[in-house]
């Protein structure tokens, strides 16, 4: 067989994928955990110190820590820093990170398909008690943010309360099926600067439309909210 430009060799060549910066930092963090023989419950150094040790910016380090939090490797607590939850395996951590980034667009599409409809139905069908649950979730998220946290718990409660208020068992089942994937995108989104407060404002607009029993308005507000929270760093860096 003759090997020439345009022949079999050229056909087998593919561009070499460059690792994203946060992937490199995740690898470094896994190595740091292993080298220091850290066990679950141990606290990583403060972000400023850890960034200096790794030679990276705090913003890049923060993104990598969020990526590990999404995988359940660390828990990032306000005032406590990052605490190890389970010991990572470097190769699996990076593989899981890439899979997470790759499926983000599909998760966002699913949220748009399901949650926009759920918001409209909630506006039509909600009871006073279910409206109170939506308002309670807003208050929880507001309290979390005021305390310096990201508002993840209140965010989850808000979307769950809307699902309940929609009174659609099949849509609720579909939401339950992807709840773990949605939690990944929620942590990623709410970890970005100013995003928690912007998300809270989006929630307030949705709640107002549901309270007014404005189905079309609730659907529009939910669509706007999902578009906003879907602007995540992993997708921007990967584009």
UniProtKB/TrEMBL annotation:
Residues covered by the HTH gntR-type domain: 19-87
Key words, A-Z: DNA-binding, Transcription, Transcription regulation
SMART domains: FCD, HTH_GNTR
Gene Ontology MF terms in the entry: DNA binding; DNA-binding transcription factor activity
InterPro entries assigned: GntR_C, TF_FadR/GntR_C, Tscrpt_reg_HTH_GntR, WH-like_DNA-bd_sf, WH_DNA-bd_sf
Keyword Transcription regulation: yes
Keyword Transcription regulation listed: yes
Pfam families in UniProt: FCD (PF07729), GntR (PF00392)
PANTHER family, sorted: TRANSCRIPTIONAL REGULATOR, GNTR FAMILY, UXU OPERON TRANSCRIPTIONAL REGULATOR
The protein, known as: Transcriptional regulator, GntR family
